[in-house]
Amino acid sequence: MALVTEGHLRQYREEGYCLVKELIPDDLIEAARQRTMEIAGDLPDWSERHFQMLDPSRYKAAGGSPLPGGIQQPASQEEVFARIADHSRLAEVMAALLEGPVERFTDQIGVKHAAIVEEQGGCSYFHQDSFYWKIAPELGCNCWIPLTEVGVEASALAVMPASHQGWQLIEHESYYDDPPMGHVGDDGFQP
After folding, report:
1. pLDDT tens digits, one per residue of 140-165
2. Distances from the Cα of 64 to the Cα of 7, 22, 115, angstroms
3. DSSP letter string over 94-157?
4. Are the C-beta atoms of 38 and 74 separated by less than 8 Å?
5. 140 exposed, middle or buried (CB, 10 Å; 0-12, 13-18, 19+)?
6. Which of 42, 48, 102, 118 has the most CB atoms within 10 Å of its CB?
7. What is this structure's pTM?
8. Measured between alpha carbons, how far is 160 from 52 in angstroms, rounded to an integer?
9. Residues 46-99: pLDDT tens digits?
């Protein structure tokens, strides 16, 4: 049975998104979730460029270290993440939606922390990541994979249907993350 149905294709073309259930096996998701939690509590010895950190004057891990709000390109660092980012079903779905061969451009993990009671995240234009990637929006497709069950009230991801129409790359908006995110280096926290 094909992972992508005509209904998925129609919804993707008309509304700009679709939901493909059971894309990645649960055991791979659980392993990545566990490792993400470990990383959030105790950062591995990766380059600092892999982490978007929350402002340590406001938030710290239980052990006192800075708290990551984002992990960039974890699949390049550990197999547990590469097994998801390079999964054959993910590639199959992307190829079907984009109607041709695909390759992974990047991977990342957004980390929402239960101990933070303020909203975590922000709003951005459809395909706003294309601004950073310097590729035409219609040539890429983001795949969001929750590592835990996420209810409607959690606001993990929301899409404005049909906002992709015309495939115009909007001039990048400036906004401030709340809670503040940046990098922690020798000079301290830099938003």
Report:
1. 888 889 999 877 776 666 677 777 77
2. 48, 37, 14
3. HHHHHTS-------EEE---TT--S-------TTTHHHHHTS-GGG-------SS---GGG---
4. no
5. middle
6. 102
7. 0.83
8. 26
9. 999 999 998 888 888 888 888 998 999 999 999 999 999 999 999 999 999 999
